[in-house]
Design a protein that fits this description.
The protein is an alpha+beta fold. The chain has 2 helices and 6 strands. The longest helix is centred in the C-terminal third of the chain and has 6 residues, at 74-79. The mean pLDDT is 80.
């Protein structure tokens, strides 16, 4: 679960954060990176039942292991254009 928060002013004038949960669902398979599938599934909020479309495997983004992620040096890229 992840949370999103926004400031709420109390009757006393004091401001405090009010947070709401954002459920996130991940598909975790052995020897493969986890892939978030929250937007692909249907969740019945009353029962908690999850329905996953049959074509979901074709819709999943390709995940990468963290060791395979390459970070670009934006300063080097910006400096090379001039």
């Amino acid at each position: 679960v992840q949370y999103t928060c926004e400031p709420e002013e109390l009757p006393s004038g004091e401001v405090q954060p009010r947070c709401f949960p954002i459920p996130r669902i991940f598909r975790i398979c052995p020897n493969r990176p986890a892939v978030e599938i929250t937007k692909l599934i249907k969740i019945d909020l009353k029962t908690g039942e999850i329905e996953m479309p049959d074509e979901s495997s074709a819709l999943l983004p390709k995940g990468k292991h963290w060791r395979d992620i390459r970070r670009y040096d934006t300063e080097a890229v910006a400096g090379s254009s001039g």
